[in-house]
Amino acid sequence: MELVTKKRLHLISGRTNRGLAVEVAAHMGVELSEPNLVDFANGEIKCTFADSLRGGDVFIIQSHGDSPDHTINDSIMEHLIMIDAAKRASAKRITAVMPFYGYARQDRKAAGREPITAKLLASLFHTAGAERLVSVDLHSGQIQGFFDGPVDHLTAMPVLLDYIQRTLDGPVVVCSPDTGRVKVAERYARHLDADVAAVYKRRSHASTNAVEARGVMGEVAGMACVLVDDMIDTAGTICAAADILLENGATEVMAASTHAVFSGPAVDRLKNSAFSRVVVTNTLPIPSEKEFDKLEVLSVAGVLADALESVFEDTSVSEIFGGENQS
Questions:
Q1: What's the pLDDT tens digit per position in 102-147?
Q2: CA pair distance 267, 295, nearest whole angstrom
Q3: Global pTM?
Q4: Number of structural domains, the chain?
Q5: What is residue 59's DSSP assignment?
Q6: Domain check: are 247 and 287 in the same one?
Q7: What pLDDT, in 10s, does the model give residues 23-33?
Q8: Three-class SS string for 67-87?
Q9: Are residues 132 and 227 in the same domain?
Q10: Same-domain check for residues 321 and 204
Q11: Could you say which of 29, 103, 283, 306 would form a disulfide bridge with 117 (CB–CB 3.0 to 4.6 Å)?
Q12: Could you list the residue range(s) of the whole structural domain that residue 45 is in?
């Protein structure tokens, strides 16, 4: 007996960033399947899928961030529960789509007796039943090696580059807020035909144990500067970097970052900062109370939709980005 099967795509969203998932579904021309998530009185989460997933190619989207009703840990647990439910519903393949990967900064032991939580998270998703991960602008590329399966590492660079090219006139310098992100700045600079600069810390030679001062490697005087980073959390580092660039003669400083974590004092710092604009993407939800006049939010829905279609059709994801998502 010969049986010809048709591939079926199921796109499912958690509750943390459903707005992005709706956009992705619209780009792909599909409808979101309903996971019927409920919270019990003690905080436990339950999922019951409305549609049969048997034999389907299932993509489960959840940003690992907080919301008015959920913590980042709630978001991660909800993601794992949906994956487990899909596995037990006989899905043929399950892809965990995490526009923002939680605990990505805990990717190594910086001191004794510390966890490597980014690796723990990858192991949890594999155990739950995910066969593939899709994420955007991981904090460090090595996280791809933490998961025992394929990882499609996407980048929001095309979206951010388009905005920069449309809004900034004249000579531009792409800047890194610290020396650890210079490679990212160099990738942007190649597309903008721009120079690269980096803000760094230096110790005073005049006295021992003096407070660190900041300097700039590269020429920024008379130039518009774009500070690029993968995320803005409390905004302390990036706001201080903007100040030192202006002190060194920059005419304007724009922030361009993929993930708007915006913890604690971040919004107040950015409101009162030297930035002319703060440009981020919607990998994480930004509630109305965290919006401010300088903020521009761009959508990565098109990037995610193209990547998920490539995964479903078993074609190359890296070709979408010309291979630059691997660097």
A1: 999 999 998 999 999 999 999 999 999 999 999 999 999 999 999 9
A2: 10
A3: 0.94
A4: 2
A5: E
A6: yes
A7: 999 999 999 99
A8: CCCCCHHHHHHHHHHHHHHHH
A9: no
A10: no
A11: 103
A12: 9-155+301-326
